[in-house]
Structures are given as C-alpha cells and as structure tokens.
Amino acid sequence: MTYLTDIATLARKDLLLELRSRDTVPAMLLFVVSTLVVFNFALPADAGAAAAYGLLWIALVFTALLGLTRAFVAEREQRILDALVLTPCDRSAIWVGKGVSVVAFLLLAEAVALPAFGLFFQPVTVEVVAAVLLANVGFAAVGTLLAAMAAAGRARELLLPLLFLPLVIPIVVGGVGASVAGDPTSTADPARYLGFLVLYDLVFAILSWASFEYVVTE
Amino acid sequence: MIRGRNLERRFGEKRVFRALDLDVAEHDFLVVTGPNGSGKSTLLALCAGLLTPTRGELAVRIPREHIGYLAHEPLVYRELTALENLDLYGRLYRVAERRERIGMLLERFDLWEARHERVAALSRGMAQRLALCRALLHEPGLILMDEPYSGLDEAGASLLDEVLESFAADRTCVVATHDPQRVAALATGGLALA
Is ipTM > 0.85 here? Predict the structure, then answer.
C-alpha cells in the first residue's frame, strides 16, 4: 500500500510540474501533428494502408522519444534525484511514478494523433488503439529507465535515442503488425501481434523495474 | 556512526582525496574544512550513500531515511511551491503529522508567508532556508550539511546557529564549511582536507 502511495505521490508531482511548466506535452502534440501533416504530403496517393500505418508508428516512436528526453530534466538540472533516492520509498517507485506520467503524456499526444491519422490516412481501428495502448507501456517502461541512465551521463541527448530506438524495434514490429492485421482488408490475426506486445511489456517492465535501483545509485 | 578507512575517491583520472580515515561517533559534531576542490562535498555525498568510495571502506550505521542531507543545490523542484515541495518530501518520508511539522518548519525558517510561492521565484537565501526545511523535515538522526550558511542573510544565519545548537546535543552532525569559526563552539572534532 505504501508502495502505491509513493507511486501516486511521485506521479502526481510530475503531472503538476507539467501543468505548471507546460514544457513537454505541447511539444509532443505539436511534433506528432506536424509529423503526420508532413507524412500526408510525403506519402504517394496510391500508397497502401501498410505504409500509412508504418508512418503512424514512426511518428509515435519519435513523439515518445521527445517526451522521454524531458522526463528527468528537473531531477537532472537540480540534482533532485539525490534527494529522492535518500527517501525511504523503494527506488523502483521513482521509476513507476515517472513511467505513469510518461504514459499520461503519451495518451494526451495520441488523443490528438489518432484522430489526425484517421483524418489524413486511414480509419483508426480497435486494433490500432489496442496496439497503441500496449505500446505506451513498453515505451514508458524502457524509455524511463534509459532516460534515467542518460540523465546521469554526459552525452545524454545522444545516448537516449541511441539506446531507445533499437530497443523499441519490437514495439514497432508488433504495433505495425497489429495495425495492418486489423485492417478490414487483411486476413492476418492481430491477436498474435497484440500478444507479442503484451509479452514485450511484461519482460521489459520487469527488467526495468528490477534494474532501476542500480541506475540511480553508483 | 560513520567509520571510513583509507578512503579514496576519483572522478575519472581526477583524484579528489586519498588515504582518508574518518570516525564520527553518535552525537559528534564534525566540522569539515578545506579549499575548493578538496573533496568536502564528495565526502558528504559518500556519507549519504550517494557515491561509493573508489578505494577503502566506509560504513555508515544509520538507515538512509534517517539521514538529513543539505547539498549545494536546494534539491527542490523550482516549478513547485515551497509548501508543495515539503509536502512531497513529507509524504515520501512518511512524516507523522506532516502538515503540522511542515507548518512549524515554515514558521521557524520564516517562510510561512512565502509558502505558496514557486521556488523559482524565491531568492537564493529563501531557497536555502527551504532546503534546510527539507533536510530537517523528517527529524534525521544524522545531519550532513554542505555549506549550510551559503546564501543566508544574518537573520537566517543566526537562525541556523540556533538550529545547529539544538541539534548538537542529541544528533550527529557533519558540516562542511569555509567558515569553521561560526560552528567552532559546537564542534567535537575537525577534519581538514587538503
């Protein structure tokens, strides 16, 4: 119970910080919409649904990356992580709390991105929504851990994309697969891809949860 | 409470100190002095468990939640108010009667009127007072302070004198300072880093 209270306290703090500073979510919204607009003009008129879904997932991955680059800015610039790790709360609660706020920011960005995708490209199916929701967990699990690692390093702007992009390739594979399979013209089974995303989320959430303590301590 | 033997700490190629022995018993008041770059802040971070020694042995026999750590930075969120910052730490430290304790500290450090102001809007001295409130919020048994008088005006410094005096009797304090005369009366020991 205390663990959950700590997570709620830390997540609430991040949401409050964003509400005050408005640094991250507006940038994510602007980025994802402008990317979809650019893709709309870049994609040939006769390109299939698969290409459009691919572009949607590219936009989502880079939007998540944009949000993650700012995830530990306050803790890094003001060295607040030192104070947080001295509190009696389990250090993994810091990771979960930050992950919850990252998911909240992603949901806000996607609440705009998916209707925009439906407007420019393809109707948004239930499978796309399910894949995006599952992908959020994976993005937040892996990304929050890597953002904390990058925050401690010198070349943090380089380090995060270099570590994050290869690790989320399975999310892109699962997300694009579920989206294409969910298209009414497809005969493939989206459940396979959604199951793959669930498995990815579980494995990486457990790994990140268990290893966060070693990232924030020497 | 703290026992270090043959401590050495490096950051890459740069060695901050070497062959350092440290003994701090319960209720001791150790004053750490030394020029800039001599390793005062590093030593406090080692005692807080935020860093590990590159070489040597260091034992700190107190749970981390009983350590009060005052660093160079206030370690508070600039976009949150003074009250919100203390409430955050109060919750994480599971402070009993949190609101009363926070109110008492804000009053004592003369921050009550500014409690709803964001930290970004506070002066350096007020931010340092808030940092002191944060470090003392959970009534720590071991207090590690890095230049606690930094940024404080004379009223704030006198207030800190009183606070340290009240702690000296029943808590363990390690204070790094460029002004050892200020706490000389309370000191039970000194450590001069070269």
Answer: yes
